[in-house]
From TrEMBL, chain A:
Official protein name in the record: Phosphatidylinositol N-acetylglucosaminyltransferase GPI3 subunit
Annotated EC: 2.4.1.198
Keywords, sorted A to Z: Glycosyltransferase, Transferase
The keyword Glycosyltransferase belongs to this UniProt entry's keyword annotation: yes
Lineage, broadest ranks: Eukaryota, Fungi, Fungi incertae sedis, Zoopagomycota, Kickxellomycotina
Organism: Coemansia nantahalensis
UniProtKB/TrEMBL annotation, chain B:
Keywords of this entry: Aminopeptidase, Hydrolase, Protease
Name the UniProt record assigns to this protein: Glycosylphosphatidylinositol anchor biosynthesis
Top EC class of this enzyme: hydrolase
Entry EC number(s): 3.4.11.19
Species classification: Eukaryota, Fungi, Fungi incertae sedis, Zoopagomycota, Kickxellomycotina
Name of the gene: GPI2
Length: 457, 351
């Protein structure tokens, strides 16, 4: 049976060269979807010298569009000004499905709006949790409601995230799928020789910001160091809370037991992780938390606060939960230290076993397969009439609903004008990237070098 | 049992591997180890979702395992499955407290007080501007009031048994004298600051800055000693408005008197009011009534309509708004759940 292949355009402000959960999700998911025979194009904003069209590993085509960055790597919202370039890309690449990522991304919202005006199918993936109480949450939720009013399907990375998104955007939960994140397990392999047997090493790798619960870390570290003379800490990452950690280290004179690495680049992460026995995560909110999966894959026993989607991520034998409280974090860490110290009698705590477990749990191929299932489900949905779209937008709120209708209507008219200025049949269609030729070239190279290619280039 | 139902996720995974060559190609030794060792959780509930999805429920040979809220197992359910447990941890209006009318009425006094104090300030300016009041009168009155207020504040601190240091008191007096001298020296400059600007512009800007002052004022009673954001914005707006107004006056003495009054009125008086509210709510209520009446009385000469409007406004804020607040509580829809950002509980802060 020949499967139908789709042309997919993923859009997000967050993509390589920036690093993070969304970025790696986009890249790996795209790679695996391409291996399943689909064509994937990624659209993001330009970053420094990285602008224009680039090809990444596996023939992944990335459009780096010019944009003004306003806040934490998100571009300036302009509503309509991106329509011409998005339309050119969608037509050129013969896109069937536009898949936007992350609620904070302006590009994602605009691409979905324009794609809907052009009658394309849209999917939205939410990667983070947001509360309902603060001003930014309220505003962003309104925007999310606008975008999600007219997407065919939404994807969330955990069940908690699904509940959050359904509430935030007032969605029908049956239109929301849960597809977790994944890791490339082979990049995170245990290496017992890297560990210092003299010590029990606790590794922390996170941005040092309030949301990652660094306040808890600051109070827990001296207490643990006091009660367990064999424990030392390696803390990687940078951020405003780093000064607190440095003060703590000075105050309790723990310079020889607390190592502060500063920011750690992505390729270095496995090398830092394998030095540890325990991974500590003190996040206050987390939709999925790839970091703990990476750590478990490296064979570390995980201690984590029980927040957001974290309880869904790993089985109890691999993770010790703590409440986001000082005493609870200390207790959980002490328990983990006890378990690690007694590792000889517990074969189920062996790093190799952890690694193979994680390998069976998470894989990008599985993610891509499940994402593909969403695509097939919506690819042939019947397009609702324009008035139905307006009806959906109108229901977004007393005032907001009318504004949203206005925006959608202007965008639709703009689409007609653009179609008259640059008729779709006059736009040159992009040439198909030949996977066969590419794979043959790779195989030739491999034979020549007889070593695996670097995965992330 | 048909084979496809018994296939575990892992073996299905291996089947799937040939037609999608794994990017990170699994190394043989780990794959075999993976086959040997299996976590309970993984093998237990693992089954092929794709295969299961294609089979109608009636054809099932064994009952479905109940759905579990986990991500690391492959379940016999589609990804968009909605379980009965969906949103079970949602808490609605969990920590909403219902307001008590009399408490809210008492709480509104801070707003009325501040509004009235701005009105009094404007009235003083108008009197000064028209010549109904001289700069020296204002200077004497405000200085006397400040000295009295300082004495009362000191007494309050004694009542509250806050440790009072003599040196601190001396420092305060020294600072005040220095500040007064500086202001006195600056007043000729401030008087001519906006000579080239039309008065209409000044009035409009003053109104805007007083609105900012009203909006950002620190109404809480918690912060007694220092002024923090956004209270600092409020104070800055008030001082800016005062400087603009003062530049419309015609004598140096008036400017000096007016600006020193402004600082006493907007920087020191709120601190005093906050202390008072802490010590005795009766005294606070009395201050509120007195301030509102003084504002109305001062405006009686200038404009009866404004005076009446002020009294009505104060009454509305004190008695109408609490009713309104309690009424809109019914529309409260507070959502809490596991997605909320946790508040870390830490006992020992180090400083």
């Amino acid at each position: 049976m020949t499967r139908r292949t789709l042309n997919i355009c993923m859009v997000s402000d967050f993509f390589y060269p920036a690093m993070g959960g969304v970025e790696s999700h986009l890249f790996n998911n795209a790679q695996c979807l391409m291996q399943r025979g689909h064509k994937v194009v990624i659209v993001t904003h330009s970053n420094g010298d990285r602008k224009g069209v680039r090809y990444m590993a596996g023939g992944l085509k990335v459009y780096y569009l010019p944009a003004v960055i306003v806040h934490s790597n998100a571009s300036l919202p302009t509503f309509f000004s991106t329509f011409p370039v998005f339309r050119q890309i969608f037509v050129r690449e013969q896109i069937d499905i536009v898949h936007g990522h992350q609620a904070f991304s302006t590009f994602c919202h605009e691409a979905i709006l324009h794609a809907r005006s052009m009658g394309l199918k849209t999917v939205f993936t939410d990667h983070s949790l947001l509360g309902f109480a603060d001003t930014s949450g309220i505003l962003l939720n309104k925007l999310l409601k606008f975008t999600l009013s007219d997407v065919q399907h939404a994807i969330c990375v955990s069940h908690t995230s699904k509940e959050n998104t359904v509430l935030r955007a007032a969605l029908d939960p049956r239109l929301v799928s849960v597809v977790p994140n994944a890791i490339i397990a082979d990049q995170f392999r245990p290496d017992p020789s890297a560990r210092d047997p003299e010590w029990i090493t606790v590794v922390v790798l996170s941005r040092l910001v309030y949301r990652k619960g660094i306040d808890l870390l600051v109070v827990a570290v001296p207490r643990i160091c006091q009660s367990c003379p064999r424990v030392r800490f390696i803390i990687g990452g940078d951020g405003p809370k780093r000064i607190d950690l440095e003060q703590m280290r000075e105050r309790y004179m723990l310079q020889d037991r607390v190592e502060l690495l500063g920011s750690v680049v992505a390729e270095e992460v496995p090398r830092v992780l394998v030095r540890g026995d325990i991974f500590l995560n003190t996040s206050l909110t987390e939709a999925f938390c790839i970091a703990i999966v990476e750590a478990a894959s490296c064979g570390l026993l995980v201690v984590s606060t029980k927040v957001g989607g974290i309880p869904e991520v790993m089985p109890r034998n691999m993770i010790t939960f703590a409440l986001p409280e000082e005493d609870s974090v200390v207790d959980a860490l002490l328990e983990a230290v006890g378990r690690v110290g007694d590792r000889e009698n517990h074969p189920e705590l062996s790093p190799q076993h952890f690694h193979s477990c994680v390998k069976t749990m998470y894989s990008w191929h599985n993610v891509a397969e499940r994402t593909e299932r969403v695509y097939y489900k919506i690819a042939d949905l019947e397009e609702p009439p324009l008035i139905e779209r307006f009806r959906r937008y109108y229901g977004c709120g007393l005032v907001a609903g009318k504004i949203f209708c206005l925006i959608a209507a202007v965008d639709y008219l703009l689409g007609i004008v653009l179609a008259w200025l640059w008729p779709a049949d006059k736009i040159e269609v992009a040439r198909q990237f030949s996977q066969d030729t590419y794979q043959r070239a790779i195989a030739r190279n491999l034979q020549r070098r007889a070593e695996p290619p670097p995965y992330w280039t | 049992m048909p084979p496809r139902l018994s296939v575990s996720f892992r073996s299905r995974w291996r089947d799937a591997a040939p037609d999608c060559p794994a990017l990170p190609s699994p190394l043989p030794e780990t794959a075999e180890e993976a086959a040997e060792e299996t976590a309970d959780d993984v093998s237990g509930a693992a089954s092929a979702p794709a295969a299961a999805a294609s089979i109608a429920p009636a054809e099932r040979l064994r009952p479905r395992r109940p759905w579990r809220r986990l991500l690391y197992i492959q379940q016999d359910y589609p990804d968009d499955y909605v379980d009965d447990t969906f949103l079970r941890e949602l808490q609605k209006n969990a920590n909403v407290r219902m307001y008590d009318y009399s408490t809210v009425v008492l709480q509104t006094t801070v707003v009325t007080q501040h509004l009235s104090s701005i009105m009094v300030f404007i009235a003083v300016f108008i009197n000064l501007y028209c010549g109904a009041m001289t700069g020296s009168t204002l200077l004497w009155c405000s200085s006397a009031a400040t000295v009295l207020g300082f004495g009362a504040w000191d007494m309050l601190r004694l009542v509250q048994q806050t440790p009072v240091q003599r040196t601190a008191r001396l420092g305060l007096i020294k600072g005040a004298v220095l500040f007064a001298l500086l202001l006195f020296g600056l007043s000729p400059i401030l008087r001519t600051l906006t000579e080239d600007t039309s008065s209409d512009t000044i009035w409009a800007m003053t109104v805007i800055f007083f609105c900012v002052n009203l909006a950002f004022h620190d109404y809480s009673t918690g912060n007694l000693t220092n002024i923090r954001f956004p209270g600092s914005v409020s104070l800055n707006a008030a001082v800016l408005a005062s400087v603009l107004l003062a530049s419309q006056l015609d004598s140096n003495l008036s400017v000096f008197a007016f600006l020193s009054f402004a600082l006493q009125w907007f920087a020191l008086f709120p601190i005093f009011r906050r202390h008072l509210k802490r010590v005795s709510s009766a005294a606070s209520v009395a201050t509120t009534v007195a301030l509102a009446l003084v504002a109305a009385a001062l405006f009686m000469h200038i404009s009866r309509a404004v005076a009446m409007l002020h009294v009505l406004g104060a009454l509305f804020i004190t008695f109408g708004c609490p009713l309104w607040l309690i009424w809109v509580q019914r529309y409260k829809n507070e959502l809490h759940g596991p997605w909320d950002e946790a508040r870390p509980i830490v006992h020992r802060y180090f400083h």
